[in-house]
Amino acid sequence: MNQRKALGAALLRPLLKPELDQNVALAVLDLIFTAVLPPEFADRLRISRREAIHTAVSIWAGGALDRSAKLPVLRGGDDG
Q: Where are the domains of the chain?
């Protein structure tokens, strides 16, 4: 898990708004995942887990990512 977080952070750092503290922005994203991933979170809101995660990350991205930055296209494997 730590390896995946480090890889994700390396991909996101260049896309963050320059005025943001990168460590804080990534810590907030980690906190979002910690809070939103448990099924109980979505259950309380009566939405799907996928919708809860998508919405939370979209809100974070709207505030943290530079709109002019382009996300790299990643080709994922079957490891989830």
A: 2-64
Whether pTM > 0.85 for this model: the answer is no
Closest of 44, 59, 9, 55 to residue 30, by C-alpha? 9
**Contacts by 33-42 with C-beta closer than 8 Å and gap 24+?**
none
- Is the separation of the CB atoms in 56 and 32 below 8 Å? yes
Q: How far is CA 66 from the centre of its chain?
A: 14
Report yes or no: 53 and 36 within 8 Å, Cβ to Cβ.
Answer: yes
Backbone angles phi, psi at 12, to 5 degrees: -85, -30
62-78 pLDDT tens trace: 999 887 766 666 566 54
